[in-house]
Amino acid sequence: MTKNETFILQMDYSNEPRRDILCIDIKSFFASVEAVERQQHPLQAKIVVVSKPDNNGGLVLAASPRVKEQYNIRTGTRIYEIPRQADIEIVEPRMALYLEKNLAIVEIFKRYVPHSDLHIYSIDESFLDVTKSQELFGSVWEIATNIQQAIWKELNLVATIGIGDNPLLAKLALDHQAKTDEHNQYQAYWSYERVPDTIWQIKKLSSFWGIGARTEEKLNHLGIYNLFDLAQYDLQKIKTKFNGLGEQLFFHAHGIDRTLLSDQFVAKANTFSKNQILNHDYKNPEDIKVVIREMTEENAQRLRKHSLTTSAVKLTIGYSKHIVQSGFSHQMAISATSSSKKLVDYMLHLFRNYYEPYPVRVINISFNKIVPKQGTQLDLFEPLEAALKDEKLEETVDFIRKKHGYTSLLHASSLLPNSMALQRSKLLGGHQANSDKKEGGRG
To answer: Is 125 a catalytic residue?
Structure first.
């Protein structure tokens, strides 16, 4: 090596797992579904899906490709930033409809891979390991094309597909090439051998899968400004700075990911949480208590559905943005329970102890230390007959709500103007579950 030559660290990939992984995304999923519902081509429609479209601060959840290209409107854009002179249709989200379409897409995936080789990453993005499927359905390219064609023929939606030797490479191929590569039918393939020409050409660290703005800033302090810098950095130094995350980032910069989709993981549900942003600032503590009660009961019903109990509860209150005080967050240890009555009492106890008379805008209730239920929960200070009666009553209420919907049985307080139970019952994933409206706030 001469003085002018620079050593470049490259990995030996001969012992790395090499699979045929597809990472599939539906182009502008929510907006495309709305376009199809209106008999419009998803790539030509001018549609944005906006949470709370009647609110000037409503957020864009999805924008059709044409809107992105012409007006640079992206997810997170505020409704007041949308040009008023533009001929853009603003629509309210219909989460139940999107889930229905997602299930139809997953059924198409299942024609090509077994459940063990399918990982649903999000409502519009999935990973498929088609390594073994090629014996039945042809090459990885043929499978990718057939899936795209089936999704278009059956749902009129455009699928983009990243292909890689592992899930990381497939995801990066999708995000950094396939989503915009119309010339190659929205397909892109990134392999180990192409790492210098693909991953190392990514200039912005935070655009890389798994690196956020704060991590990017910390990496910059080490003199790491792009993916090539990260791949060439001293492994021991970055491990010292970031622990296990540093090692993962280093190997990801070399395209190495040893995840197997067929590995099954059992998620541990350590927390059940509900968050509510109120429609306006609540100044009356009695109104706030009503919402706390409703949210706690919904979370408790979820515990009972899965035969679980909680032994720690937490209440977080966010005050109005118009005052200096930010709010509070406090928790307490309790005897393991799934009783709505007891959990409501605990939450209201926290509220009374820590609430100050300021307007409230955000409420979050959390159940922690969740474990499987161990028989009937008894309390030394509560008669056995009363405990059994309460448990039987909650079983009956849960049964009725499961059969006829949550709002089939409500406290009278939930019918008051500032209750949120009826509004939340129409939401899915925090947004409108379904809507008959096909016209937006403005066109």
So the answer is: yes
